[in-house]
Amino acid sequence: MKTKIFTGMLASAALALSASTASAATLDDVKAKGFVQCGVSTGLSGFSAPNDAGEWSGIDVEYCRGVAAAVFGDPSKVKFTALTAKERFTALQSGEIDILSRNTTWTMSRDTQLGLNFAGVNYYDGQGFMVRKALGLNSALELSGASVCVQTGTTTELNLTDYFKANNMEYKPVVFEKLEEVNAAYAANRCDVYTTDASGLYSIRLTLDNPDEHTVLPEIISKEPLGPVVRQGDDQWFNIAKWTHIAMVNAEELGVTSENVDLEKDSENPNIKRLLGTEGNFGESIGLDAEWAYNIIKTVGNYGEVFDRTVGAGSPLKIERGRNALWTDGGLQYGPPIR
Amino acid sequence: MAQDRNHSLAYVRTDMVQDEPAPINSKGPIAWVRQNLFATIPDTILSIAAILLLFYIIPPMFRFLITDAVWTGENREACIVPGAGACWAFVDAKFSQFMYGRYPVEERWRVDLTAILLIAGTVPLAIPSVPYKKWNTIFVLVIFPILAFILLTGRLGLESVETSLWGGLLVTLVVAIVGIVVSFPFGILLALGRRSKMPIIKMLSIIFIEFWRGVPLITVLFMSSVMLPFFLPDGVSFDKLLRALVGVTLFASAYMAEVIRGGLQAIPKGQYEAGDAMALTFWQSMRLIILPQALTLVIPGIVNTFIGLFKDTTLVLIIGIFDLLGIVQLNFTDANWASAKTPATGLIFAAFIYFIFCFGMSRYSMYMERRLDTGHKS
After folding, report:
1. Is there a domain that residue A174 lies in?
2. Number of structural domains chain A divides into
3. What is the ipTM of this complex?
4. Burial class (CB in 10 A: 0-12, 13-18, 19+), B165
5. What CATH number does residue A172 fall under?
6. Is the per-residue pLDDT at A10 higher than 60?
7. Binary contact (B230, A94; C-beta < 8 A)
8. Which of B68, B74, B80 is the best mutation test for A, with the most CBs of A within 10 A?
9. Residues 6+ apart with CB under 8 A from B105
10. Cβ separation of B102 and A50 shorter than 8 Å?
11. In whole angstroms, what is the distance from residue B197 CA to residue B208 CA?
């Protein structure tokens, strides 16, 4: 991840040059032009990838549709810019995009030094292990003595060393420069274990000859909280970005889905009433109308629905909810209350 | 010799011997094989090795590409069956994306129309016997670019289609054709500038050429997409595709200039003096005497640069523009089509398209070389 450091330096140098090019009132700009400009990745299974019709789909993409629904009541009023890892922060800082939803890890240096704000975590990723089911393993703690395929020169490699040392286990590293080489080595059975970020493991699994013969172990050994990013210095827009995600999480917790949202409008539950704008006007406080959350849920869905159809059980990736389950189910997705 | 011709002598033949077929080992397929494949012992060893290699490669390739291949299917399920070969169903499902990118479906007729206009303009131009070359050239170089611009971007009442939606072969061809067409005259001017006796023009040409030849294309594209936005005032943003087009064109011009300068260098001094002796101006002698000869000489070099440029266009994918290869790779990330065979299939398809265009350019250049051959070369 040397490139990350370089990108950071480049971005902060560039930031110093441009002194804050971002205009303060992003919401006004967005309303004036009539769409949200959203930065996504240049292709990542389940996060932002093209479907057969050529439209973007994925969990990062759905989040941006949610923002568009909150602002305009119409999830199609969003335009996507595909950004490489190097371009992403400059594109946001220079105002080319309004929001960055591109599997970006929330770290302190990015949050504090780049003039950016992370608006939440829409996917808790982290390094995991994939093995062949035939090995009959159930936990990463049983991996002692295994040969592990890993990409060299990455934080993944460091995490791997630390994890095995901390648990007094031995392993034989099989390292490669490029991700494709690691994939090929694992596919050719040159190692027992493949380690990288868990979301990556699931998409690599799909490209193996017999995906069902491989399983991802439950242990996650690093923290990679991925979330949307906005420019610093525009609190209103920051709030919209933050509460779009929270509204989707809360909707799931309250059992409000895109299917039943119209029925739930008559609900007596005060939490649902406040969420859907039938009691109070919480949209007003972030510069939107009272129906902001209703529109997100009606047109995009709650967090659970989006997770399910993009990366979860309803998609080919079949990623377990795991840490992305609601806090009530033992996960980390926890939405502050709307009141 | 006054003897009677009819006088028969036993040892003189009266009729011609019938032509015998050539000995079997000097003519026909067996002879060809003997002479070309098994003439000497080293030849024999190499030939057998090559034939074995082909036996080793071709049947599995044929099975992968044709017999075991999956031709139809709705999603990845079709391609993950055990023993499946190439996943052509993937290419089938994504074909229109590979051609147009994310260009809106209901506006794609504009791209088709542009392609038809391009073919209608260039094919007669490329065939020497078709008349009206002058009007044809004007159409291709002046009218067509204007029409293509109006149609593709959407002017004059057509719905606007921003370039971030363009992709696939459309972008590859737009970048390659603009690069080729613009870099050629630029290259000629730069080559002449570099050989000019006017010091400032000469110096500027050298600086331009050496600068653009000295930096990698990746750097140019990267700077244009990452650093340029910071130097522009807030709200002003150049179109990303336009930035790439400018970068690629300047880059190709520098290479083209050096190829053409090679041709100019090869023209004997007498040709320049002949132009002067006939009181032709500089531009007249260039147009009528020097350039026709110089350009003919360097056709292989020019086409080399064109083909290189055509393949280099794929570098635009590093700045998030999805050309043909970029969009093929992008679709590997569609989880609905992820399978072990999808990447190989997509890349074979992309390679095939690139090959058709590059091979076409190569064959046409060989044809032009033969046609323009003045017999001066050996």
Report:
1. yes
2. 1
3. 0.81
4. middle
5. 3.40.190.10
6. no
7. yes
8. B80
9. A53, B96
10. yes
11. 17
Asked if B64 reaches chain A (Cβ–Cβ under 8 Å), the answer is no
What is the nearest CA distance from A274 to chain B, expressed in angstroms?
37
DSSP classification of residue B22: P
Classify residue B59: in a domain, yes or no.
yes
What's the DSSP call for residue A186? H
In DSSP terms, which residues pair with A118 in a beta bridge? Answer: A229
* pLDDT bracket for residue A20 (50, 70, 90): very low
Closest listed residue to residue A52, CA positions, set B331, B168, B317? B331
- pLDDT number for residue A22: 45
Tell me, what amino acid is at A141? Answer: L
Between positions 258 and 297 of B, the ones with CB within 8 A of A are none
> What is the DSSP pairing of strand A214-216 with strand A171-176?
unpaired
* Residue A40, H or E segment: strand A36-41
Is the confidence at residue B320, as pLDDT, over 90? no
A5: confidence class by pLDDT, cuts 50, 70, 90: very low
> Is there a contact between A224 and B377 (Cβ–Cβ < 8 Å)?
no
Instruction: Read off the pLDDT of residues A176-217 as tens digits, 9 standing for 90 and up.
Output: 888 888 888 998 999 999 999 999 899 899 888 888 899 999
In the block, which residue shows the tokens 């000019």? B196
Residues 90-149 of B with CB under 8 A from A: 93-94, 96-97, 101-102, 105
Q: Which residues contact B24 (CB under 8 A, 6 or more apart)?
A: B30, B31
Residue B309 lies in a domain: yes
Task: Say if the Cβ atoms of A316 and B335 lie within 8 Å.
Answer: yes
In whole angstroms, what is the distance from residue A136 CA to residue B105 CA? 49
pLDDT tens per residue, range A219-231: 899 999 999 999 9
Query: Do the domain assignments include residue A171?
Result: yes
B271 lies in the same domain as B324? yes
As a whole number of Å, the CA-based R_g of chain A is 21
* Contact status of B320 with chain A (Cβ, < 8 Å): yes
DSSP per residue over A240-288, as a string? HHHHHHHHHHHHHHTT--TTTHHHHTT---HHHHHHHTSSS-TTGGGTS
| Residue A103 belongs to a domain | no
Query: Is B295 part of any domain?
Result: yes
Pair of tokens at residue B62: 């044929």
Q: What is the DSSP string of B61-115?
A: HHIIIIIS-B---SSGGGG-STT---BHHHHHHHHHHHHHBT--GGGHHHHHHHH
Q: Which residues span the domain enclosing A149?
A: 125-223
Return the exposure string of B214-243: e unless at least 16 CB atoms fall within 10 Å of the residue's CB, then b.
eeebeebbbebbbeebbeeeeeeeeebbeb
CB atoms within 10 A of CB A279: 14
Report chain B's C-alpha Rg in angstroms.
29
When divided into structural domains, chain B yields a total of 2
Query: Tens digit of pLDDT for each residue in B260-280?
Result: 999 999 999 999 999 999 999
From chain B, pick out residues whose CB is under 8 angstroms from the CB of A209. 82, 340
Distance CA B69, CA B78 (A): 10
Structural domain boundaries enclosing B131 = 88-371
The closest of B177, B105, B101 to B144, measured between CA atoms, is B177
Alpha-carbon gap: A109 to the closest alpha carbon of chain B (Å) = 20
Question: A50 and B332 in contact by Cβ < 8 A?
Answer: no
